[in-house]
């Protein structure tokens, strides 16, 4: 997918070339270059630094970007593009020249740690498949000659579609048409301590399943035990598509008698916008998937087959690519617009970590678009009651009375509580009916707490924070029903509070 960088979020975690139970996983993000106003290498590196990025990957070996990355300490993965594969795979000298020009010329100032030879070659460029392992071996030989093979690993990313009969995972095997390529490739990875690179897209698995895969299962959302997928052969329980695909790859390698090669997921993500045939390509789903993926990976959860074994993953992608052809979703996989503004704000809670790709730190708490009205009502009752939110601006005649419905009023109350609690983890959940956004929900003369006084332009995000509130309370319940003496007392108290 064009020029890619891999972005390492969060804390400066370290990972060895071969994943192990003791290694920490990292998260990366792919950056495509099909952007009409592509940022300069200097601007890209500035964004990487601003986001505390430790690892980047290029889909080629762009000289200007490699120079911009010099002396940053950022670990860089570069790539042999598919259109250069045939030449390198047929000539050791061509491979050596490529390494000299794109690796030796930049090391050690630029910290190059891996090389991807081609991308999804078996499925997108099958005529080059017979020379893939030769190209990988020639690149590696050039690194050995330069005494860099210990520092730089070599592999090639594959589409997960090369795995057949992928569920249950224990039955999975690689498309045997490619055994003449996969067997020597796996031997190479094993002998050099490298890893299998795999592109995993639960979005496409979900889309193509004709309803067989639940959306929650694709998005890492919690499932009740009776909804988890169980591998009848191993009795392993799967709570998400991602783990099932990764384990299918492990089992497919086992089918060829390779059991000690780690996996790195080189691409995964979810589009934030789609056309009429892609109703689940939404901001909320993209945020949910990527936020849950980040938490899952950085917790070193591993998979049911290999719990605790790191599965470092690169999110596709850093920027929306407006020049890409195909459906609308193809243009909308990014975390950021080309100007550095976030498409949505990622939120990760756990182990004292909160990550957000927000550059302003101005966030608000709003109702979710699909929230159940009864649950909204109960949460609104709590916020304006035990939550001690000042709900007087919601009274008739006050600035935030309109729109006069539970969604509008709950949004104000939720945000007021969230701001009152200093945006602390768990303060924007309300039993799952609220989410965090970077769009200022203020409207007209109704200025929401936390606003700078004008309506923002960015789009909703999702909070993953657990709720520490309850859904009990009374104020808005009486306010909307308006049939009890208690409601009159509360309204009078609020009105007096507003006047005072």
UniProtKB/TrEMBL annotation:
Keywords: Cell membrane, Disulfide bond, Glycoprotein, Glycosidase, GPI-anchor, Hydrolase, Lipoprotein, Membrane, Plant defense, Signal. It is found in: Cell membrane. It comes from the Eukaryota. Its EC number is 3.2.1.39. GO terms for cellular component: plasma membrane; plasmodesma; side of membrane. PROSITE patterns: GLYCOSYL_HYDROL_F17. Residues 1-17 form the signal peptide. One of its GO terms (molecular function) is glucan endo-1,3-beta-D-glucosidase activity. It catalyses: Hydrolysis of (1->3)-beta-D-glucosidic linkages in (1->3)-beta-D-glucans. GO terms for biological process: carbohydrate metabolic process; defense response. It is an enzyme of class 3 (hydrolase). Residues 363-448 form the X8 domain. Its main location: membrane. Residues 452-471 are annotated as: Disordered. InterPro entries: GH, Glyco_hydro_17, Glyco_hydro_17_plant, X8. Residues 458-471 have a biased composition (Polar residues). Pfam families: Glyco_hydro_17, X8. It is a lipid-anchor; GPI-anchor. Belongs to the glycosyl hydrolase 17 family. PANTHER family: GLUCAN ENDO-1,3-BETA-GLUCOSIDASE BG1-RELATED-RELATED. This is glucan endo-1,3-beta-D-glucosidase.
